[in-house]
Design brief:
Chain lengths: ~575, ~45
């Protein structure tokens, strides 16, 4: 890995000053990274470590629950009883979608706000408050679910009622996360006040700021919906209106996944730089795409209410189509600029053979790269295409509450965000914890195993959902019921693949967890020297003479990938309209 | 002498304005509008 500066991650030139960094404001509590040379605030480092460790702990809880759920939905295994299935599914959703992801995101905010801006952390006290509240909230929620007092699934739709401790736990976690986000904004403020950087913030910091803004909206919705639900569960107030609850809850539930999208895209840019030396192609375009996220991506929450009778067609169509497509455009921009920047970086090193010579020569033996690039492909090709299609109001009527919906979000949140964060961990542990990963050969194949498993599972979910298999349901056989749902053999086959894919993905997850825990607690220290390179291949060799200036921004390989994406989308989208026409004859 | 900053660049360099817009747009378009529609719904009468 070549020496990296924060400017490599996208700090543009200031109007009247050379871009770069001035004296930091660390007041002594800082070290220089032995690999990148970047400043690491020691206070921030402590909280990055704590948040990352807790994230991995809750990932383990959610991962074990994922395996149990997958083995129950596999009809020939059907592992858990109905009671424990719904309990485990509640546990899985909350730990994977909320606790693992948001602990990791708070760690990322602290990292980019301090290291990339050469600033101290805004407030150590706020960081402790945030961590304690988030941990207490997560523990209370998990304990309440495990003792059987909150079998309400992640959505906890009223009038289904959990024990009041469940809602209290969610509130504590949300408030703690909000305090962490506020601490990031404080860090931004003092870095700007102390002029620790010149010009605009680096692109990765800008993306993290977008994630923090989205997180603010999300957590405010969480407070608005959970406080009256908590007082209702205690018995102090009446039950909140069910339609109102669904509206505001999805301002928490779906928007929290948009924090993931923003953080994941920021991680893509960061990992592109760390693994291939890529730089953003165009600052204004990339930042403009993040602005589109800030303004419009949260409207996607309306997808969940597309069959709700209380809100009008105008509200649904505006929020899920016209306005939302601006956020989709932003994803398409990132989906082009991220691989294109890698292509430019690789071609600059001399890998110019054919359309995809740069891609074949990429450092696939580096789990940071493979995790990041698989995340990009799975999110774009599977998550993006299914998301836009399912979010179309007319098509949604044949997909709502089927297994197609989890099929979609397992490609965005798991194949996209979680895999990208795993790739990030392969750098966070050596650079921040200053510990080397053991069994590097195993680490190198881990992203391949996880990506393959989650792709098999998600595609199988989508196909089973297309056959009408419902989401969340314990038993598609309806064992003991007076009737049969009548799913055909192909649906059962797909449910088998859900189980197989889930097991393979869990294997990949387990490898990641074991290696990371081993590295953090028992790993060899690399303090005082650069981290060991993940992939010592030719991709790290600069051969700039092979490239003329004229070629610098030619990205024919990425253009072909983009056209392939658009063609795949067109086929899938129109196939769904055909399926709608077949299901609903209009004469 | 410095170049004049483009207005869009000024917006992108102002996290506080972005924060305000990032809260206002989804609140008005999703939450307030949806809430208003639910508020206007007549109560169902029982058969």
């Amino acid at each position: 890995m070549t020496t990296t500066t924060a400017n490599d991650m996208g700090a543009p030139a200031a109007a009247d000053e050379a871009p770069g960094f001035r004296q930091g404001n660390h007041q002594g509590a800082v070290r220089a990274c032995d690999t990148t040379g970047l400043p690491v605030c020691l206070t921030a480092q402590l909280f990055i470590k704590l948040n990352a460790v807790l994230a991995v702990v809750f990932l383990l809880v959610g991962g074990v629950a994922a395996l149990l759920v997958a083995l129950t939905r596999w009809p020939s295994v059907h592992l858990l009883s109905a009671e424990w299935y719904y309990r485990t599914l509640t546990l899985h959703g909350l730990n994977m979608l909320i606790f693992w992801i948001i602990f990791m995101e708070i760690g990322i905010l602290y990292f980019v706000g301090t290291t990339l801006l050469n600033s101290r952390l805004g407030s150590k006290a706020l960081a402790w408050v945030s961590l304690v509240l988030m941990l207490a909230g997560a523990l209370i929620v998990n304990a309440t679910v495990l003792i059987g007092k909150a079998d309400v699934l992640m959505t906890s739709y009223v009038p289904i009622q959990a024990h009041w401790a469940f809602y209290l736990g969610v509130i504590l976690f949300a408030v703690g996360a909000l305090v962490g986000v506020i601490n990031f904004f404080v860090t931004l403020y003092i870095a700007r006040r102390d002029r620790t950087y010149v010009g605009s913030v680096p692109l990765v910091v800008f993306g993290a700021t977008a994630a923090a803004i989205i997180a603010t909206v999300t957590l405010l919705h969480g407070a608005v919906v959970m406080i009256p639900t908590f007082t209702w569960a205690v018995g102090w107030t009446d039950q909140p209106d069910a339609a109102w609850y669904r509206l505001v809850w999805w301002g928490l539930g779906h928007q929290s996944q948009q924090i993931n999208v923003c953080a994941m895209v920021s991680v893509w840019y960061l990992m592109g730089t760390l693994t291939t030396g890529s730089k953003p192609l165009n600052q204004a375009v990339c930042r403009g795409a993040f602005v589109l996220y800030i303004l419009f991506i949260n409207l996607a929450s309306a997808h969940h209410l597309l069959v709700d009778p209380g809100v009008s067609a105008g509200w649904k169509i505006w929020n899920t189509s016209y306005a939302m497509y601006l956020a989709v455009a932003a994803s398409m921009i990132h989906g082009f600029t991220v691989p294109a920047s890698v292509e430019v970086a690789m071609r600059r090193k001399g890998f110019n053979k054919g359309l995809f010579g740069w891609l074949f020569a990429a450092p696939w033996g580096n789990p940071g790269f493979s995790a990041f690039f698989f995340s990009l492909v799975i999110f774009g090709f599977l998550g993006g295409i299914t998301g836009v299609t399912l979010g179309t109001q007319q098509i949604n009527i044949i997909a709502h509450n089927t297994l197609r919906i989890p099929g979609h979000f397992h490609t965005t949140v798991v194949g996209g965000t979680s895999l990208a964060f795993m790739g990030l961990a392969y750098y966070v542990v050596p650079l921040v914890f200053q510990k080397e990963y053991p069994a590097k050969a195993l680490a190198r194949i881990q992203p391949f195993i996880f990506a393959a498993g989650i792709t098999i599972m998600a595609v199988a979910m989508s196909l089973a959902g297309s056959a009408g298999v419902p989401r969340r349901h314990w038993d598609i056989e309806f064992t003991g019921a007076q009737f049969s749902a009548g799913f055909d053999a192909s649906a059962h086959l797909m449910m088998g693949f859900v189980g197989i894919g889930g097991t393979v993905a869990f294997t990949g997850l387990l490898i990641f967890l074991l290696l990371t825990v081993w590295a953090v607690f028992l790993g060899r220290s690399n303090a005082g020297k650069p981290m060991e390179q993940w992939a010592a291949n030719a991709a790290t060799v600069i051969q700039r003479e092979h490239l003329t200036d004229h070629d610098e921004h030619k990205t024919p390989g990425t253009m072909v990938l983009v056209l392939l994406l658009l063609a795949s989308f067109a086929v899938y989208y129109f196939a769904n309209w055909k399926a709608l026409a077949d299901a609903w004859h209009v004469r | 002498m410095g170049r004049r900053k483009h207005p869009f660049q000024s917006l992108m360099d102002n996290p506080w304005l972005l924060l305000a817009l990032g809260i206002a747009v989804p609140f008005l378009s999703y939450t307030a509008w949806g809430w208003f529609e639910l508020y206007r719904l007549p109560l169902a009468t029982l058969p």
